[in-house]
Amino acid sequence: MPHPIMFSDDDPYLGRIREIALALPHTTEVIAHGRPTFRCPKMFGNYGGSVKGSRERHDQSVLFVADPAEREALLADPRFYLPAYLGPAGWLGMLLDERTDWTEVTELLDASYRQIAPARSVAELDAR
Q1: Which string of b and e fits 39-60 if b means at least 16 CB within 10 Å?
Q2: In whole angstroms, what is the distance from residue 85 CA to residue 46 CA?
Q3: What is the distance of C-alpha 56 from the center of its chain?
Q4: What is residue 124's three-state secondary structure?
Q5: pLDDT score of 1 more than 80
């Protein structure tokens, strides 16, 4: 049985996330478990998630692989949460709203991409 779709294509936050993620070299969008994921070829970003150990959903959030050196500091910020399933693998979620700093989101997705993407893709990004 397929997962239900848990996003709307006309969500403006999803539009911004797509714009940021798909600008990175060799990135594709794949719907997995009912949510948009961004890959190169492994997943480095996910739109929407839920809090680990609860049923609390955050459909307007972005999940990313956190830089291990920044993980604890980010979790101390109330905008961030430990996502279900992906949290133990180093992922964090960031809530999105009208106050979102899109430069910060871009930096977080860039850092996540750099941890996941092949060296040739990172080199292409650096050459831009």
Answers
A1: bbeebbbbbbbbbbeeeeebbb
A2: 12
A3: 17
A4: helix
A5: no
Q: How far apart are CA 14 and CA 82, in angstroms?
A: 20
- The residues pairing with 100 across neighbouring beta strands, listed in sequence order, are none
Domains, the chain, in order of start with CATH, read: 12-121 (3.90.1150.30)
Burial of 109 (0-12, 13-18, 19+ CB in 10 A): buried
Specify the residue for token string 């998630």.
49
- Rounded distance between C-alpha atoms, residue 4 and residue 21, angstroms: 23
Tell me what pLDDT residue 53 has: 85
Whole-angstrom Cα distance, residue 124 to residue 128?
7
Q: Quick check: pTM over 0.90?
A: yes
